[in-house]
Amino acid sequence: MNLPAWIARRYFFSRKKRSFISWLSILSMLGVGVGTMALVVVLSVFNGMEELNRQIFKTFESDMTVAPKQGKRFMASPTLLAQLRATPGVSLLTTIAQDNALARYGNAQTVIRLKGVDDNYVQRQQLDSAMLEGKLLFRRNGVNYAIVADGVRNDLTISPVDILTPLEILYPESGQTLSVLNPDAFNREALTVAGVFFIESKYDNFVLAPISVARALFGYKPNEVTSLEIQLRPGTNEEKARQALQEVVGKDLVVQSRDDLNVDLYRAIRVEKLFVALTLSFIILVASINIFFSLSMLVIEKKADIRILYALGATRQMVRRIFLTEGAIIALTGALAGLVLGVVICLAQESYGFIRMGMASSIVDAYPVRLDASDIVMTGLLSIVVTVLTSWFPAQRAANTL
């Protein structure tokens, strides 16, 4: 029989009447449980937000992007394109010409982000699930079409079913004095709106058009682009593919993954997650301080019992273990209950979405959550470490009681 554990259980579970120390121990256990549960839930929500952003970016951005280290455009020769397409893991390569421009529709106008794409962009099938209205179409029977974001549609009051009103795109012509009164100061292209997409407010100012239209507006040469977007085959190792592509493009161009393009956002999420985790850890610490006080008062209350144990031959180590076990029972019971409840809440939110975001500009209705085993282990270890630290001093004081 483990005598210290048996005595500790008797102290906690078998009191004939509830004293102030008993209620303080229960309060400490509840505090540890609530803090542990909150920590698991909040960390899972941050994991879910990070995963949600990855899914959002995956809907619009490519797996890999080749861009110039300096400037905003470069020459993509047929030889370079062929070498990139032949790189292991590459599934599809899209040439891109992108810049800010002015859009007019009827009597309304707004600044947009014009993204010119080549014909194989449709094969990526990224926007298929994001289309609100119309078709994903860029060229048919010699007519150029545009796909506009929902924000642009709202700003300009665009109707995709109205084929008579064109979407006019204007871009300042190089070498001309910029003046709204000068009709030659802007290059102009007229497009028919084929569809409307919505992903997230970050992309609400985008207009997608054929790359030939974008090059004509921007004054680009036939092989000139702002970037190359590359889709990888499923199962391809992204880091190895990025290194292989970087060797092909050389030192004047840089290959970036989707995460590289949004590294600032991910860093901000992780930093915020860290600070929130530290804040919630203080809740567990405060609850553990209550364990310290409850054990200290229990030592005072049980001085007579401790003397009897010494008289019966108990050692200091045994007495110390009794009160360490008492603190472990209080804290670990609360921590285990908090972990289980936190996991249950996250699984329920993931399956049923009880808590809604209440944002019309989001592609999801409920708060996203994603359980991570490392977060659960970290939370459990935190509870154990704090429990040992706060239980040690009362246990040491009990061991020194004579």
TrEMBL record:
Q: Superkingdom of this entry's organism?
A: Bacteria
Q: Cross-referenced InterPro entries, in alphabetical order?
A: ABC3_permease_C (IPR003838), Lipoprotein-release_system (IPR051447), MacB_PCD (IPR025857)
Coarse class of the protein's main subcellular location? membrane
Chain segments annotated as transmembrane: 20-46, 274-300, 321-345, 376-395
The places in or outside the cell where this protein is found are: Cell membrane
* UniProt keyword list: Cell membrane, Membrane, Transmembrane, Transmembrane helix
Q: Which residues form the MacB-like periplasmic core domain?
A: 25-247
What Pfam families does UniProt report for this protein, alphabetically?
FtsX, MacB_PCD
Q: How does it sit in the membrane?
A: Multi-pass membrane protein
The residue ranges of the ABC3 transporter permease C-terminal domain are 280-400
Q: Under the cellular component aspect of Gene Ontology, which terms does the record hold?
A: plasma membrane protein complex
Which biological processes are named by the entry's GO terms?
lipoprotein localization to outer membrane
Protein family: Belongs to the ABC-4 integral membrane protein family. LolC/E subfamily.
The name of this protein is Releasing system transmembrane protein
**Originating species:** Spirosoma radiotolerans
